[in-house]
């Protein structure tokens, strides 16, 4: 998901996306710990998605656009 697409989402949708991203990251970590994860590059990608969502949420809290 690109930054422009994320900025177009509403506040509720951002929170849902953030929760889903945290769940995805948790599942990836579990799979990595049990040696079931095939592509280890998914972990940093999931972290980057969480950071992007949190940044957009914080910008809205501070009213930066």
Keywords:
65 residues; mainly alpha; 3 helices
Outline the secondary-structure elements:
Elements: H1 3-7, H2 11-33, H3 42-62
Overview of the molecule:
α2 (11-33) packs antiparallel against α3 (42-62). The protein starts with a helix and ends with a helix. The chain contains three helices and no strands. By secondary structure, the protein is an all-alpha fold. 75% of the residues lie in helices and 0% in strands. The chain has helices spanning 3-7, 11-33, 42-62.
Short overview:
The protein is mostly helical. 75% of the residues lie in helices and 0% in strands.
Biggest beta sheet summary: none
Q: DSSP helix count?
A: 3
Give the strand tally. Answer: 0
User: Strand-and-helix sequence, N→C?
Assistant: HHH
| Total separate domains | 1
The top-level CATH class is: Mainly Alpha
Rounded to an integer in angstroms, the radius of gyration calculated over CA atoms is 13 Å
Helix content: over 70%
Q: What is the average per-residue confidence, as pLDDT, rounded to a whole number?
A: 92
Task: Provide the CATH architecture.
Answer: Orthogonal Bundle
Task: Using the coordinates shown, work out and report the CATH topology.
Answer: Helix Hairpins
Rounded to the nearest angstrom, the distance between the terminal CA atoms is 19 Å
- The proportion of strand residues reads under 5%
Shape: elongated
Low-confidence stretches: none
Computed structural class: mainly alpha
